[in-house]
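FAQ: What does a ligand-bound record look like?

Like this one, built around adenosine-5'-triphosphate:
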Amino acid sequence: MADEVTMDKIVSLCRRRGFVFPSSEIYGGLGSTFDYGHYGVLVKNNIRQRWLEAMVYERDDIVLIDSAIILNPRVWEASGHVEGFTDPLVDCRTCKLRFRADKLEDSQCGRKPSKRPGEFSECALTEPRQFNLMFETTVGPVAEEGARAFLRPETAQGIFINFKNVLQLARRRPPFGIAQVGKSFRNEITPGNFLFRVREFEQMEMEFFVPPADSERWYRYWIDARVDWYAKYGLRRSRLRVREHGPEERSHYSQGTSDIEYDYPIGWSELEGVANRGDYDLTRHTEFSGTELEYVGPEGAERYVPHVIEPAVSIERIFVAMLVDAYDEEEVAGRERTVLRLHPAIAPVKAAVLPLVAKDSAMVEKARGLYEELRGSHVVEYDEGGAIGRRYRRQDEIGTPFAFTVDEQTLADDTVTIRDRDSLAQERLAIGQVAARLGDELRRPWATPKASSA
Ligand code: ATP
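The answer part, i.e. the structure of the complex:
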């Protein structure tokens, strides 16, 4: 299919327009590590902000926390990560590469022409051995045994160990949640597929503490709520599905796990996980720390260890899904255009302000005046460089939903054109109405014009 959205197209657009580039490039890079440029940071900020609105600001029952990245190493013993946060690893003695034993089907051998590991007669794969994904570091100047610590592989444990603080200080009773956004680190054996699997990523996790008898209901509630959030921010429902893990696939702590999957260019893959963690974490931390982590009702009449429902996702996986879903190529008046049909609330720049003729100082003055008015409320961009068609195409590629153009007529009657990224419709409106109109447009519910099958 000519207009298939491939990961290569997304990577190339991200690079061309300065969303994301390979990290440490001037030193030859560092495999599967990326840096975000201006537009990439703006998109990440928008994703985080939309998540915080839905999970915290628009609710009464969830509070925030920001825990340390390096925690007491006992935390990871209690959580089961020291012992069990492993992937099975195989080495190839011939090509010296390493693969995840459970993902050989998706891996490629280093030799040419590339095949699955084990498919050449010369392949010499070792037996799988367990490889712990936690990054180790040393706290303090002496690399002695007692100083060994880990970079957190998930933000969740920083929440559980603060359960008592929140219960007491935020005066909460179940059902209530604690949300955290922050970097997590995993020494993935085979990172790749752009940002889909990286070693350093920004997780958004929320632990929702509920009375044990209500856990199944809340588990279902959070699966639905999270799918609806993706649909609200533009992902096509035809590209989303919920896949429930079978008992053999579940993590050691889980009483039920569902992956919200997106149909990435690499096929259906986990976008977000929603897990019913039962009372595993609070019980283990009670055992290991000696601090009772339980809910005690008024007068001590009620006492129980809450069960936990956890929606967990990384900004990176949402970023890729949203770009893939938004990417579109079409022919307009005999010319190809690439457009990112991002939800306006996710788009890095909300509007562009463009003087038609950069050399016309009256137009420039009007356009700059409008730009300065709008930027008080939104991220907007002023651009006077190059032919107007090229400037529109640039804004299309970064997903700017609206452009306001100041032209000859503006100087006569103080009206500008508004151009819609998706429909390409243009109409005139008074320059004094632009701010209100942009605000209205950005508040409106939005659905992608892309076909559900595209
Ligand atoms: P996978 O099976 O893909 O390795 P996982 O089941 O180990 O993922 P979880 O431990 O459930 O992942 O992590 C919760 C969420 O964190 C995932 O749904 C995903 O959005 C994100 N995530 C996990 N690992 C990575 C990674 N290496 N890069 C980017 N995001 C990640």
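Follow-up question: can I read anything off the structure? Yes, for example: The mean pLDDT is 94.
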